[in-house]
What we know:
Elements: E1 17-21, E2 28-29, E3 34-35, H1 39-43, H2 45-53, E4 57-61, H3 77-87, E5 91-94, H4 100-107, E6 114-117, H5 128-134, H6 138-141, H7 145-150, E7 156-159, H8 170-174, E8 181-183, H9 185-199, E9 205-209, H10 215-226, E10 232-235, H11 237-246, H12 253-261, H13 268-278, E11 282-283, E12 287-292, E13 295-300, E14 312-313, H14 315-327, E15 330-334, H15 347-358, E16 362-366, H16 368-376, E17 385-387, H17 391-397, H18 403-411
Parallel strand pairs: 1-4, 1-7, 4-6, 5-6, 7-8, 9-10, 9-15, 10-11, 15-16, 16-17
Antiparallel strand pairs: 2-3, 12-13, 12-14
The chain binds 3-phosphoglyceric acid.
Amino acid sequence: MRFGINTLDDIDAGNKTVLCRIDINQPVDKAAGVLKDTTRIEACIPTLKELSEKGAKLVLLAHQGSDIEYKNFWTTEPHSKVLSSLLGKEVRFIDDVCGPAARDAIKALKSGEILLLDNVRFVSEEQTLFETKLLLSHEEQAKTLLVRKLAPLADLYVCDAFAASHRDQPSLCGFEQLLPSAMGRLFEEEFCVISGIMEKPERPCVFVLGGAKISDAFLMMNTVLKGGAADKVLSGGLVGELLLWADGKNIGEGTKAFIKKEGYDNLLDTAKGLLSAYRDRIAMPGDFALLEDGQRAEYPLENIPPDAVVLDIGCETAALYQNIIREAKTVFVNGPVGVFEDEATERGTKMVWDALGDTAAYTVIGGGDSITATKKYGKTKDINYICTGGGALIRFLTGEELPVVKALRHGSKITRKIEA
Length: 420
Ligand code: 3PG
């Protein structure tokens, strides 16, 4: 047991039906219908291999979003092929989550076999509305459809989804109320490494916050600035754009329309509050890049064309960020600072990642897009720690107990299955 949670050493999975929640949520190429990266899938292989070799009848639960949080859910079918090839054995996929077909497939599993269910977020109780508005307790989550239908078929619950450990949802926190539970190997490693770094980060400690999934960034910024964990926040991507908008700066009507479309304008008041309390510790972009006839065009903030959609931080901002990263002693990164997928708008992210590659600071990056950028710029070996979690990492850094950690501590005390 570590941190009050069972590890795989504490459970006997042999011939047992094990529900295993993994996080294989990957950046997707919507046009081509393929996964752009497989890092998270690779990272959970040790747990799956170990459980399968111990003779578990293994049922995998996972979610897959798209680039925008909680919209456009995708099937997990492509992931089963990647899992099969990495494990060297078939991981069967079923296009059902907890209906009769999924339950029959679970009952038919033999020792060592692995079944991947479809995206758990196809079940409405797994979605954000339930997490943020209805605030189901863990006991209530144990009464949701998913848990009621699947827990009776299982003996054990294992969570290896560290990257989703900040989510308070039935597939992550409900099963631990009924089944003896443990964390998987990846969860154990990430929890251990990050706890170690956070005990005493070397100063100055800089946070680079960007990306397109920004609710978590805004949630944690106040805590890390107030509590002193962050000496400086370097903002990019939608985080930087929203902060500037909140500060009354012109970021282009197209940019604002995009932020509104994603529903992030509701963070404007939070952003204003952050700026009034911590302006001196928050760096915002002073120039931007946009596309004109398919070509990169850079503008200082005060000259951004009225209708513009900004797509990257400008080179002056990126150079300034490079200096701060090179002078830091610890750097946490969550999210690229621009649309790094396209050649014309990748320069800001590339420059930031160049500095991450050669700084002497201890560097930690987290999240799907940051991992993809790290690979794209060949920096995997230069980054000290790559965490599969983005939102989970930054939520962890606030010092709050993560919902899944709380649930796993509870499930680690259960020695015999509780009938619902
Ligand atoms: C992530 O990508 O951060 C995790 O998979 C959690 O996904 P979510 O933000 O869609 O809940």
